[in-house]
């Protein structure tokens, strides 16, 4: 029998965006991890994921793929890690042109976060208050700024980098073909069930979901609207 693995995005899929896991779902999901092969794949780094999921859940996962699969962790052990360099030309556009070009009024600092094999860019900045984040989320939905930036940068730098909308305020930057789809190298012959909240063109869950269409006959992906829908789907299928 083919082994089935459950793979989850974190922000917006198992937790509120940048928030902590609901306590009731945490208890239920802990039991789920005991009975199934569970993996996480997220654009965040390990400290952020541990804060959101708790170290207890983190260590129950078979593996956690951080920084859009450019780091692989098993518990507290870093198994592998990729490097990331942003060209001076791209950095200039991100930090000078795009920040100034946006008509959104707030700039909160820490706009470019370079991680292992990945970077995250935010016009708003990662030091925003909850209210500022909510204002930007609403504004972005009305103005489609992040999608526009991602599409434009993919046109200009798509030979080297890939730009995808991530979370609620950011844009993930990876090397070409080095996003979340990388994890499938570790799942040869294994049915994978993936849950993500940005399975759409331009979203950072999209490439993995597309690859799953050709992975195994029983591999599939679910685009969810939040952790409640993830819980409902899991409860029905297991």
Give a written overview of the molecule.
- With 238 residues, the chain is of the alpha/beta class.
- 36% of the residues lie in helices and 22% in strands.
- The protein contains eight helices and eleven strands.
- The longest helix has 14 residues, at 88-101.
What does the overall shape look like?
Answer: globular
Total number of strands = 11
The CATH homologous superfamily of the largest domain is named: HAD superfamily/HAD-like
Domain module tally: 2
So what's the oligomer here? single chain
Element-by-element helix/strand order:
EHEHHEEEHEEHHEEEHEH
* Helical proportion, percent range: 25-40%
Low-pLDDT runs of 5+ residues are none
> How much β-strand is present in the residues?
15-25%
Average pLDDT rating: 92
Task: Please give a handful of descriptors for the protein shown.
single chain, 4-stranded antiparallel beta sheet, globular, Rossmann fold, 36% helix, 7-stranded mixed beta sheet, Hypothetical Protein, Haloacid Dehalogenase-like Hydrolase, Chain: A, domain 2, 2 domains
Set down the secondary structure blueprint:
Layout: E1 4-8, H1 23-35, E2 37-41, H2 46-53, H3 55-60, E3 63-66, E4 71-74, E5 77-81, H4 88-101, E6 112-115, E7 118-121, H5 130-143, H6 145-157, E8 161-166, E9 170-175, E10 191-196, H7 206-212, E11 220-223, H8 227-237
Parallel strand pairs: 1-2, 1-10, 2-3, 10-11
Antiparallel strand pairs: 3-4, 4-5, 6-7, 7-9, 8-9
């Amino acid at each position: 029998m083919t082994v089935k693995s459950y793979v989850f995005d974190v922000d917006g899929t198992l937790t509120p965006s940048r928030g902590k896991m609901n306590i009731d779902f945490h208890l239920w999901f802990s039991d789920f991890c005991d009975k199934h092969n569970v993996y996480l794949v997220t654009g965040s780094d390990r400290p952020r994921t541990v804060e959101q999921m708790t170290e207890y859940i983190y260590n129950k996962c078979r593996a956690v793929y951080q920084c859009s699969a450019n780091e692989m962790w098993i518990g507290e052990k870093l198994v592998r890690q990729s490097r990331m360099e942003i060209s001076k030309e791209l950095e200039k556009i991100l930090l000078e042109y795009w920040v100034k070009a946006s008509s959104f009024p707030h700039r909160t600092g820490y706009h470019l976060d370079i991680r292992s094999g990945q970077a995250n860019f935010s016009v708003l900045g990662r030091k925003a208050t909850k209210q500022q984040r909510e204002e930007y989320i609403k504004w972005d939905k009305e103005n489609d700024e992040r999608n526009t930036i991602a599409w434009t940068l993919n046109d200009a730098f798509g030979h080297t980098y890939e730009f995808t909308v991530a979370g609620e305020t950011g844009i993930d930057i990876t090397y070409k073909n080095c996003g979340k789809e990388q994890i499938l190298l570790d799942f040869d012959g294994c049915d994978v069930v993936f849950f993500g909240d940005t399975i759409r063109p331009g979203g950072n869950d999209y490439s993995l979901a597309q690859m799953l269409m050709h992975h195994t006959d029983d591999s599939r992906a679910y685009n969810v609207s939040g952790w409640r829908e993830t819980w409902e789907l899991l409860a029905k299928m297991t």
